[in-house]
Amino acid sequence: MKTTLSRTVEHPFVTGLRPDHLDIINHDATEMTFEPGQIIFRQAELANQFFLLQSGSVALESVMPGQKPVLIQTLKKGDALGWSWLFPPFRWNFQARAVEGGRAYVLNGAHLLVESSENRDFGYELMKRVAQIIIQRLQANRKQLLEIAGDKLKPINENSYAKKSGVRANPLDALESLIEQHPFLKGIPAEHLKTLANCAMKVQFEPGQLVFEQGDVANRFYLLENGKVALESHVKDKASIPVELITGGDVLGWSWLFPPYYWNFDARAVEKTDAIFFYGTRLREYAEENHALGFELLQRMVKVIINRLQATRRQLLVAESERTAVKS
């Protein structure tokens, strides 16, 4: 059944969108109802839909052959469900099963992708909203992982660009050239390079040096050229616990993107590290002025954050399994 503009606008994900952007959202949108126990989508199946939950609750589960599904997260009214339509291979990473009956708006993911590439104003708005939700879930999952594993936690090393092994540029290369060569920005249009260079500078960290501290204002982010930085949970009166290792060729720091603009973790250099520093506040202003630039950056950010969210969820499954084994 086709949705109407007035009904769709009720969901938090699209609150505040321009009318023309709402028209794009509504194109081919349908409304579905689901009953308790109903499978909304199955792990590894083709992912081409985006669900805005209006009522009820849905369990996100990991399914392994011969084993019972393991709960990852429960989503409720006002949540958005499903990101795998955003990037290849366009397959669901988990299963979604209704816990309580309810209804959802189902958006056409393929249509949203096509419109994002053709209409960068819309693409920028879409990626902003997706990025904000995924970052929030990543932070929540990291804290949940810490609660379960504590000081026994083994830090994740999920480098989206592991095969690139960092940036091996000549130190005398111009900053624009270094930015262009970094795996995170590979293929970015040339017209954006000067803008990025205008809010960037080269930096270096010594082993043990604090890059940023939990609770401080988040106004920057880094492209690591080489070296290694540990993301740590800072617990009062206790040693910091490494949560993740960020290595050469990857990206460090998301909290500058959205309010309240505070770091959620410490970041400390594990070894000598070269990086490109960006003034996040200035970059946000440029992105708001130039939505084509904003879309290019956020699309890349979203892909990396989704990878880290998936890695954190996999580690959560292992930690929960180990905790259950100890109890039994």
Helicity, as a percent range: 25-40%
Number of helices: 8
What Rg, in angstroms, do the CA atoms define? 21 Å
Query: How many β-strands, per DSSP?
Result: 16
What percent of residues are in strands? 25-35%
Give the integer mean of the pLDDT values: 88
Distance from N terminus to C terminus (CA atoms, Å) equals: 48 Å
Tell me, what's the shape? globular
- Which stretches of 5+ consecutive residues score pLDDT under 50? 1-5, 162-167
Largest sheet: 4 strands, antiparallel
By secondary-structure content and strand pairing, the structural class works out as alpha+beta
Q: Can you write the helix and strand succession as a string? A: HHEEEEEEEEHHHHEEEEEEEEHH
Q: Enumerate the strands of the largest sheet in spatial order, edge to edge or round the barrel.
A: 1-8-3-6
Supply database-style keywords.
disordered N terminus; single chain; 4-stranded antiparallel sheet; 16 strands; 34% helix; globular; 8 helices; 328 residues; alpha+beta
Please outline what is shown here:
The chain has 328 residues and is an alpha+beta fold. It contains 8 helices and 16 strands.
Structure commentary:
This protein has eight helices and 16 strands. It has helices at 5-8, 19-26, 109-118, 120-149, 175-181, 193-197, 280-289, 291-327, and strands spanning 30-34, 39-41, 49-53, 57-62, 70-76, 80-81, 95-100, 102-108, 200-205, 210-212, 220-226, 228-233, 241-247, 251-252, 266-269, 273-279. Helices cover 34% and strands 25% of the residues. The longest helix is centred in the last third of the chain and has 37 residues, at 291-327. A hairpin with a 7-residue loop joins β4 (57-62) and β5 (70-76). It is of the alpha+beta class and 328 residues long.
